[in-house]
Design brief:
By secondary structure, the protein is α/β, with parallel strands linked by helices. The chain has 16 helices and nine strands. A hairpin with an 8-residue loop joins strand 4 and strand 5. It is globular, with a radius of gyration of 22 Å.
């Protein structure tokens, strides 16, 4: 049996030790939970570390279920190579978090991680957003501008909602995946870029292929390494752990002393179907901490568990596009769902793509989806 001493470990680079620890923690939920607690303690004692605290959506891949353990194991395996990864799952299951995890555990972890939501840009802008453009390529192109693929050079490009990418651009993306070169809009010279592609979708791409909305050859090129994230309703055994994690995050942020959940409150969390998945769970717990008065979360505090209202057949007609009534309804729905795209679309009775169009029409910016992608120097 091998024996290690602290002196032996002191000779190993710290970064390598940290990587080995994370790989082991991904297989041991108790160790992972202890690591999260240790990080939170260190963050709380050092104001310089405040920006490193896990965000409210960072619990998506916490869990003890077989599905989560399998996903974490696949993330570790996928991080060891350079092939494209296709992540599937409903909104709120943690697809971007999984993509970041692949990047952070790969040899590209010191390079940029650039996320682009393909559904958040008009079809006319996706090409220039991804590939960049030359000066004079179109009205308003006043200077040569790099696209997000170039900004991700040396790192990872995460293409969220890849199923909503315009068909004519899918061919350009396929060409880039094949030869590693791009051509800016309005340009002629190919530019070599070293980028790993991780894509995600909540669209059934097989159906999109059959309907002519997605290229079959691009699907096979992206789907070399496939990772499916199950909805929360299919891993209910993870709900108590996720809820406790969300509670620790919220009490720390809001300065409230809430020790746990009443049994009836936890039962309500277990029974809920969670159409918004972990993102919805995090929002519900955070809201409960804000509005609650007692030392534990009670069923009365879980106001966010009500189902989004469905438009009835005899309901009033939908407000005219661009009208003040549409804007008011949109803002009200966003406030009621904590800016959750899936739940807001459900509340308004529209598709996610239509919701993005409404947001752009009224110039409403959110912390998710429509936030401007990072621009490198």
């Amino acid at each position: 049996m091998l024996r290690l001493t602290l002196d032996d470990l002191s000779r190993v680079p710290v970064e390598r030790l940290a990587q080995l620890l994370m790989e082991w923690a991904l297989r041991d939920q108790k160790l992972l939970t202890r690591l999260h607690a240790t990080i939170e303690e260190n963050n709380g004692s050092s104001p310089d570390m405040a920006d490193a605290r896990p965000q409210s959506g960072s619990a998506d891949l916490i869990g003890q279920s077989a599905a989560v353990r399998h996903a974490l194991d696949m993330i570790v395996r996928f991080a060891r190579n350079e092939e494209p990864v296709l992540i599937t799952g409903e909104s709120g299951t943690g697809k971007e978090l999984a993509a970041r995890a692949v990047h952070d555990r790969s040899l590209r972890r010191d390079g940029p991680f650039v996320a682009v939501n393909c559904a958040a840009f008009p079809a006319t802008l996706v090409a220039s957003e991804l590939f960049g453009y030359e000066k004079g390529a179109f009205t308003g192109a006043l200077a040569r501008t790099k696209g997000q693929i170039e900004h991700a050079n040396g790192g990872t490009l995460f293409l969220d909602e890849i199923g909503d990418m315009p068909v004519d651009l899918q061919g350009h993306l396929l060409r880039f995946l094949q030869d590693g070169r791009i051509v800016r809009v309005g340009g002629r010279e190919p530019i070599r870029v070293d980028v790993r592609i991780v894509a995600a979708t909540n669209v059934r791409l097989r159906e999109a292929i059959a309907e002519g909305r997605f290229r079959e050859d691009l699907y096979y090129r992206l789907n070399i390494l496939a990772l499916h994230l199950p909805p929360l309703r299919e891993r209910r055994e993870d709900i108590p752990l996720l809820a406790d994690y969300a509670l620790r995050q919220a009490t720390g942020q809001f300065g409230r002393d809430v020790s746990g959940f009443a049994p009836e409150a936890m039962d309500a969390l277990r029974r809920h179907d969670w159409p918004g998945n972990v993102r919805e769970l995090m929002a519900v717990v955070r809201r409960a901490v804000v509005i609650g008065d007692s030392a534990i979360v009670t069923p009365a505090d879980l106001s966010g568990l009500k189902e989004p209202s469905r438009p009835a057949s005899g309901a009033a007609p939908r407000p005219l596009p661009g009208s003040d009534q549409e804007r008011a309804a949109l803002i009200e729905a966003l406030a009621g769902t904590q800016e959750n795209i899936t739940l807001t679309a459900h509340e308004l009775g529209v598709s996610r793509v239509t919701l993005y169009r409404m947001l752009r029409r009224h110039s409403i910016s959110l912390t998710r989806g429509l936030k401007a992608p990072p621009i490198a120097g």
